[in-house]
Amino acid sequence: MLPNCQLSCRNCKTDSVPSKPSTQTSQSCRDNGMTREQRKKFLDMHNNYRSMVAKGQAKDAYGGNAPRAARMKKMIYDCDIEESAMRHAKRCYFAHSPAHTRENLGENLYYTSELRVDKIQAAEQGIKAWFDELAEYGVGQENVLTKQLWNRPKTQIGHYTQMVWQDTYKLGCYVEWCSSMTYVVCQYGPKGNWLGDLIYEKGNSCTTDADCKCSNCKCSREEALCVVQ
After folding, report:
1. CATH 3.10.20.310, applies to 32-228
2. Full-prediction pTM beyond 0.85?
3. Where are the domains of the chain?
4. Which residue among 16, 66, 117, 219 is the one 20 to 30 A from 51 at the CA level?
5. Which one-letter DSSP state was computed for residue 181?
6. How many beta carbons lie within 10 A of that of residue 10, not counting itself?
């Protein structure tokens, strides 16, 4: 099951202080109930889907495939973001966390009423449900997160758009076994879902580092993704 999504707000007030970017990898995250294999599953599935979109291979309900991405960034796993996702997941409350508790982080949620689902399986279920919004509801070739797209009745697209938001490249996730559900929380930085913005720049995917237009990026031609160094 999926909750209503959240838009990003450029003029929101908050008392939180932005956290410093984490230099940790999934291999150095603390022992908190998540394993290296579980973290790798979350990261690999996100990047595989981002690569699929970048190559123009993702089906869109509006017809054809989503447009190719010119400089889609490859995600990295962030232990600090995982800690933020964990704090919310452990509340076992199926609603988005208050924005001031996760400054500049987007968030996707998923739950199943089946208890104690294997955490890798729960990751697979949640990520697939989020990405499937493209094939079920569609975005279209304009590739802009419009008010009309966001407010369509009985459809959701914001989980998909946050997953493939071009400049979002940090990911942290947590799976909690609650008393009434298995709960999946992923958070993303920098957050996406800015109303009126391109979800990602359209165009042929990178073939050289210069195509990424990022001073610290390398082009992965095989994945069609820009790897932040």
Report:
1. no
2. yes
3. 32-228
4. 117
5. -
6. 6
